[in-house]
Specification:
By secondary structure, this protein is of the alpha+beta class. It has two helices and seven strands, in the order αβββββββα. It has a domain of 93 residues: Nucleic acid-binding proteins (OB fold (Dihydrolipoamide Acetyltransferase, E2P)), CATH 2.40.50.140.
Length: 136
């Protein structure tokens, strides 16, 4: 409660700080990271850097000559035949294996997705999916 004769300066400062924070939150939510998330079936039309989201299929291979980790990914949860070969350099998450859902940033070059170093991450669908019902 404001006392009679008190200055509203504190209120003005508090509201100004709240407004700046609100604008920052809205800006970061709308701006994002500026990279489009695409699936293997929709990758062909994109140029420049994208975040490729998919499921690892086949056996990932690593070349002894340091040519990088090579694997293929397909759309998650779809029966499409679209598969994209990926070449990746950098650290590999512990959960990376055949059947993992992954996100990797990079560019499509001559039919091969060339990933940026250290951008591979795995997604854990069990933690983010709907709860399983228990039947007793």
């Amino acid at each position: 409660m404001l006392r009679v004769g008190s200055s509203p300066a504190r209120l003005v400062i508090a509201l100004s700080v709240a407004a700046v924070l609100a604008i920052f939150v809205v800006y970061t939510a709308l701006a994002g990271n500026g990279i489009a998330d695409v699936t293997p079936s929709s990758l062909a039309g994109h140029t420049g850097d994208v975040a490729l989201v998919g499921k690892v299929v086949g056996m990932p291979q690593s070349n002894a000559a340091n040519d990088g980790l090579r694997f293929r990914i397909k759309d998650i949860g779809r029966a499409t035949e679209a598969r994209v070969p990926v070449v990746y350099h950098g650290s590999v998450p512990d959960l990376f294996k055949t059947g993992s859902d992954v996100v990797v940033e990079g560019t499509l070059r001559n039919g091969v997705f060339v990933a940026k170093r250290d951008t591979l991450s795995t997604k854990c669908p069990d933690h983010y999916g709907p709860a399983k019902s228990s039947k007793t």
